[in-house]
Design goal:
The chain has 294 residues and is mainly α. Helices cover 76% and strands 0% of the residues. The protein is globular.
């Protein structure tokens, strides 16, 4: 029960990210940089407090993959934050949740996995759902602003999909260790990008801005990932896949009921198709002879 509660809490935390990003008046790359720096420091303290030895040899063995995955993680955050700034939280969240579809499309090439008829049907349904979301616009605007935001969300989804695929090849590191290294790598790469592309100058920090940045770094990154991996350790794969949908549902609840963002019938149908197709693609059939709880 404790593990399930930890995992649920992490999903709720991740589902509220968009609200805080919206209220931080910095570029997406600087927000991602600060999030990575604060989050990686928090996780480093957490790992050291658990008296875990840093597995340098295993890190060296996976160095190239960790570098690639860190770059994918940093880019993923930048595009996701741009999505939040350019469209509604519901549009950004639903387009970001297209990531498993990219994984399914790339798995036959990258992982040499067979694309079953069920997955092909799910991919087609998810694509139709995404098309309906794009057609629905948002806040009374079906024009380019929201399409740009959805485009950023899809770019973030593509990078997250690449991160998931790269992680399949990382060996002998647990999830917390891998995430800590990826966060640190992403932070260093974002630091280089911000330095050369934007400069490191920051505006005057108000009390509210500092609070939002600290919440994003400590709660949404450090605490969120720590609860995620602590809870996931004792949950089976099917429970994890099902509980993951608390994240987008939290974001959609905030979008509609707290921020009063428009939820059209077309978007509702598209979101149901997209999330339903992904859920169906990940659900494993019950073993023969067992009874369903429903």
């Amino acid at each position: 029960m404790k593990s399930k509660l930890q995992f649920i809490m992490s999903m709720v935390i991740f589902g509220t990210i968009g609200v805080f990003v919206r209220n931080i008046s910095l570029s997406s790359s600087k927000i991602a940089l600060l999030r990575g720096l604060i989050g990686s420091l928090f996780l480093l303290v957490a790992v050291l407090s658990m008296k875990r030895r840093v597995p340098w040899e295993r890190i060296r063995e996976n160095a190239f993959l960790l570098l690639l995955s860190g770059a994918a993680l940093g880019g993923n955050w930048v595009f996701l934050f741009q999505a939040y700034k350019n469209t509604t939280i519901s549009n950004a969240t639903l387009s970001y949740y297209f990531a498993p579809v990219f994984v399914m499309l790339l798995s036959p090439v990258v992982l040499k996995e067979r694309l079953s008829l069920k997955k092909i049907v799910c991919i087609c349904a998810a694509m139709l759902g995404m098309l309906l979301i794009m057609r629905s616009g948002g806040d009374g605007d079906a024009g380019g602003g929201h399409l740009l935001g959805i485009g950023y969300g899809l770019a973030a989804a593509a990078l997250y999909a690449s991160l998931m695929l790269i992680n399949r090849f990382i060996r002998n590191l647990n999830g917390l260790e891998t995430t800590l290294i990826q966060l640190t790598t992403a932070s260093l790469l974002l630091l280089l990008y911000v330095f050369f592309a934007e400069g490191l100058a920051l505006p005057d920090f108000s009390g509210t801005l500092v609070v939002f940045i600290l919440i994003l770094g400590i709660v949404h990154t450090g605490v969120g990932f720590f609860l995620f991996f602590s809870g996931m350790q004792r949950l089976d794969a099917q429970s994890t896949a099902t509980l993951c949908y608390i994240d987008p549902l939290t974001a959609l609840f905030i979008s509609v009921f707290l921020l009063r963002e428009e939820m059209t019938v077309l978007k509702l149908l598209g979101g149901a198709l997209l999330l339903g197709a992904i859920f169906a693609s990940e659900r494993k059939p019950a073993p023969t002879g067992t009874k369903s709880n429903t």
